[in-house]
Amino acid sequence: MNEQILKDKNIIITGARRGIGRVILELFARNGANIWACVRTEDEDFLSEMNQLADECHVWIKPIYFDLADEESVKKGIQEIIKEKKPIDVLVNNAGVSYGGLATMTPLKVLKDTFQINYFAQIQIIQMVLRVMMRQKSGAIVNMSSIGGIETAPGYLAYGSSKAALIHATKTISHEVGQYGIRVNAIAPGLTETDMGNYKSEEEIQKVLERSSLHRKADPIEIANCALFLASDKSSFITGQVLIADGGRICV
Ligand SMILES: NC(=O)c1ccc[n+]([C@@H]2O[C@H](COP(=O)([O-])OP(=O)(O)OC[C@H]3O[C@@H](n4cnc5c(N)ncnc54)[C@H](OP(=O)(O)O)[C@@H]3O)[C@@H](O)[C@H]2O)c1
Question: Which residues form the pocket of ligand 1, taking CB atoms under 6 Å from any ligand atom?
Fold first, then answer.
């Protein structure tokens, strides 16, 4: 068997039911991690798939239910994890929503809702988890930002600025908690083959791909591999960084 680079680490992953989060979950379990799999709603199929994966990988996987749109629900979900009094080695803040629309056509309510999920809830989770990590004097946080949080383009106000704010938080918090042995990094994926990566029209997708060196979308495993690196001790001297995995976007 290959080296299991997350062996016995206890890891929180949000947005674990589908897309990039699901692939991260499977990759991490196969690398020996125990996982709190955070999902929005209860789902019997998900539960039985998780039990099967846990048996196969000789790890535990525990579903935790909360909705990032609801502050109280996030608090309860993370408290449930903290009450277990287990070390929390890694937090992967993966869940997110996309919203496209020109600035003049974006109602403030949509902007606030997008920020609630892509920024405020992520910060709330980070704050709660950091209290544990600071006590244990170790930990790694991986925030899923986006190339849309670095590049600017028409139609990206809500999504792009929420992801840019997450990058700012990543860097700021990394400076504050480095002294406790905690690393905080972000990933900025380009277009990735998931439900979210398919919400644009075929024409828009082609335009994005034409402007990339590799001329294709990422497979979610290529983003999960970045998360694996940043979550593991292989990146032990890396903090406050944004790992861009966008197939070589060409700025024009
Ligand atoms: N795909 C891309 O092209 C791309 C590019 C750059 C960055 N990203 C980022 O990568 C991350 C994962 O994206 P993805 O492509 O895997 O997207 P996805 O397939 O749309 O999955 C999004 C995940 O977030 C969860 N989520 C959304 N709203 C939530 C809420 N209110 N409460 C709890 N969970 C919620 C979803 O849960 P449910 O299953 O319950 O809906 C789902 O698991 C996101 O942060 C996204 O911004 C994606």
Answer: 15, 17-21, 39-40, 67-69, 94-98, 117, 144, 146, 189, 191-192, 194-197
